[in-house]
From TrEMBL:
The keyword Cell inner membrane does not apply. Pathway: Cell wall biogenesis; peptidoglycan biosynthesis. Removes C-terminal D-alanyl residues from sugar-peptide cell wall precursors. Its EC number is 3.4.16.4. One of its GO terms (biological process) is regulation of cell shape. InterPro entries: Beta-lactam/transpept-like, Peniciliin-bd_prot_C_sf, Peptidase_S11, Peptidase_S11_C, Peptidase_S11_C_sf, Peptidase_S11_N. This is serine-type D-Ala-D-Ala carboxypeptidase. It comes from the Bacteria. It comes from Devosia lucknowensis. Residues 271-361 form the Peptidase S11 D-Ala-D-Ala carboxypeptidase A C-terminal domain. Belongs to the peptidase S11 family.
Length: 380
């Protein structure tokens, strides 16, 4: 049974619903997210399915970087360019390409740079085949990792983002992939801001034109298909704050660039940070069935921070969600619940909550009492 507890965030003033800060975009789908806290500052159809196009390659890179970290792949390894990679993703395919030569071997680092800078479909397929033997098996790895990251609205069938009705994502999930790459693999993040790459005598500029506009954008990935339109996942760091933005469903590269720029600029200027819960501060209590204590305190991992429109902290309501009843032993530090924060009934942030202490199994009297309670009330 899933329990929802309505709670009041500690703001120093009353909590009431108000409209999400006003912003208009031509994008069909959009999300603006604070990198550190995961606060969703702006959203437009953030959880509707979309065709991710080449933004799929962010998930491809996440798998590649995980394989490198695990020691199963090295940046200096060389992967073979198969006929499938050459024909499906090469120059004759008409899509974005590295111009890799058939039957050649290419270093993993060069393939990674091509996927990021040139959006090379051939490079993405070569990486998938080199790591997993086939693109289909690699897609299984992509979906396994997506589940670990917590991407609830995505399914991947290939490494490139080439159209497939069974491949889909959401704007929220794409932003979370961006956050994951920045957080987990800072040693590789510099590739995303490289202005150009040359391969096989052909020089190509970074398809994310925002990286050269001088507004602090240093990643991540663009995408386009005829059916989906133009989209991008971008990130900018200004001072000690980083934002991740997603726009998709636009009509041109120019429109994509402008809408992403506007969203990032607005987010950097219009919001302020506050902390409803300091490190170690109890957010709520969850019931424990048959435990040495009837409940367990729930805390965040460190402080819980949010971003709200400047001059206003009256945009919030919140619930704590957990599967009840919790069964002992509940170990200190175990993730047992989730804080869900809403602005005008729209989900803006989900934050995991952890047991603040260990609750062992209770004595016979406690277990009998809780059994009667469950029978009578059903833990409602």
């Amino acid at each position: 049974m899933r329990i929802l507890l309505a709670i009041a965030l500690f703001l120093g003033l009353a909590v009431q619903a108000s409209a999400q800060a006003e912003f208009e975009t031509k994008a069909r789908f959009a999300v603006l997210m604070d990198y550190e806290s995961g606060t969703v500052i702006f959203q437009k159809d953030a959880d509707l399915r979309l065709e991710p196009a080449s933004m799929t390659k962010l998930m491809t890179l996440a798998v590649v970087f995980n394989e490198i970290r695990a020691g199963r792949v090295s940046l200096d390894d060389e992967f073979f360019v198969s006929e499938n990679a050459w024909r499906t993703g090469g120059a004759s395919s008409g899509g974005s390409t590295m111009f890799a030569e058939l039957n050649s071997q290419i270093r993993v680092e060069d393939l990674v740079r091509s996927v990021i800078i040139q959006s090379g479909n051939d490079a993405a397929i070569v990486l998938a085949e080199g790591i997993a033997g086939s693109e289909g098996t690699f897609a299984v790895m992509m979906n396994e990792l997506a589940g670990q990251i917590g991407l609830d609205g995505s399914n991947f069938t290939n490494s490139t983002g080439l159209p497939d009705p069974n491949e889909y994502s959401t704007a929220r999930d794409l932003a979370e992939i961006g956050r994951y790459l920045i957080r987990e693999f800072p040693e590789y993040y510099h590739y995303f801001s490289e202005p150009e790459m040359e391969w096989n005598g052909i020089k190509q500029a970074n398809r994310n034109s925002l990286v050269e506009m001088g507004i602090g954008v240093d990643g991540l990935k663009t995408g386009h298909t005829e059916a989906a339109g133009y989209g991008s996942v971008t990130s900018t760091a200004q001072g000690d704050r980083r934002l991740v933005a997603v726009v998709h469903g636009l009509t041109s590269m120019r429109e994509r660039t402008e809408e992403a720029r506007k969203l990032l600029t607005w987010g950097a200027r219009a919001f302020e940070r506050f902390t409803p819960y300091a490190e170690g501060q109890v957010v709520a209590y969850a019931d424990v069935y048959g435990g040495s204590s009837p409940n367990v305190a729930l805390v965040g991992k460190g402080e819980i921070a949010l971003y709200l429109p400047r001059g206003s902290r009256q945009c919030l309501s919140a619930t704590v969600s957990y599967s009840a009843p919790l069964l002992p032993p509940v170990n200190q530090g175990a993730q047992v619940a989730e804080l869900r924060v809403f602005c005008n009934d729209q989900l803006v942030q989900s934050t995991p909550l952890f047991a603040a202490e260990t609750v062992a199994q209770g004595d016979l009297v406690r277990r009998a009492t809780d059994a009667l309670k469950q029978l009578a009330l059903g833990w409602l």
